[in-house]
Amino acid sequence: xxxxxxxxxxxxxxxxxxxxxxxxxxxxxxxxxxxxxxxxxxxxxxxxxxxxxxxxxxxxxxxxxxxxxxxxxxxxxxxxxxxxxxxxxxxxxxxxxxxxxxxxxxxxxxxxxxxxxxxxxxxxxxxxxxxxxxxxxxxxxxxxxxxxxxxxxxxxxxxxxxxxxxxxxxxxxxxxxxxxxxxxxxxxxxxxxxxxxxxxxxxxxxxxxxxxxxxxxxxxxxxxxxxxxxxxxxxxxxxxxxxxxxxxxxxxxxxxxxxxxxxxxxxxxxxxxxxxxxxxxxxxxxxxxxxxxxxxxxxxxxxxxxxxxxxxxxxxxxxxxxxxxxxxxxxxxxxxxxxxxxxxxxxxxxxxxxxxxxxxxxxxxxxxxxxxxxxxxxxxxxxxx
Length: 385
What we know:
Layout: H1 3-20, E1 56-57, H2 63-74, E2 94-95, E3 105-111, H3 114-134, E4 147-151, E5 167-169, E6 175-177, E7 186-194, E8 196-199, E9 202-203, E10 213-219, H4 223-234, E11 249-251, H5 259-269, H6 275-280, H7 282-287, E12 298-302, E13 308-312, H8 337-340, E14 349-352, E15 362-363, H9 373-382
Parallel strand pairs: 1-8, 3-4, 3-7, 7-10
Antiparallel strand pairs: 2-9, 5-6, 8-10, 11-14, 12-13, 14-15
Helix pairs in contact: 1-3, 3-4
């Protein structure tokens, strides 16, 4: 069967369910908008004990670097953090997913194991359906894109046969990477903490290695949150981290409810660390478990010799999109109680009513429930038919 026919059948089936919201027919999980509490998720050996994973992170998500994230949280001081770039023009860096198989952009994914798949597949399916609907259907000249997300299976064609899991027992009875899945596969796995996170774009190692691309799933995430992370997988970064964001939004990092504790921890460790460093340096924010890491105008990692690297975030000269799925809202779990009650003066992030006349004041930013027209335009520019 041709790829277009296969994808069309999958997309029609999923979008039909999305439109009718009739998920209760197949699974009780599918009827929910958010993931269940922690005790409803399987505590598997392959689940990561990481609580402070950046939403979209720009270093290779191999076991080594995920171990380092755990080490950072435990207070250890690793001397290597991994190195990567966004859409880099050289082999060892991040880039967009390539065209293969007749010009299609295939993004393969696998679930870590059967328990993970049973728990979170319904949410991934709904998030994929959201993107498929927003993009105008399957890849074609009419829809204007070439993207196909597909689960790794043992069948002869896309989405045919039984699923292949990311890790399986090897001949020694040890859980190891499944040799039947591709090196570029997106690994979907559970983390035993709230929220979701994903790597940005495609990372190609030389020589190839597995596990560079991950989507980490915790508790309490909505379908829109999953769709946001799929935006990262496609290569999108946070709109509110653009270098020109201060022209459009007002950001006050000291309004986060995690600010005082993070600053105290930082100064206890190093009295020279000030508010500006905590608020603008993603590596400092990451080290002291500060929410502001996801709001800095650069993304950070550490090079092979331990040198800090700050990667600028590019905007492609496009208009600032406050309605983007990749833009954070004013009201989050890390906003103060006053902000959540509607006191915009106490919110970390608000938008100007008129960027050309800031004296008119500010207003709240609400959470996007799906891709914006600007998001769709970005995807179709990046992966055009």
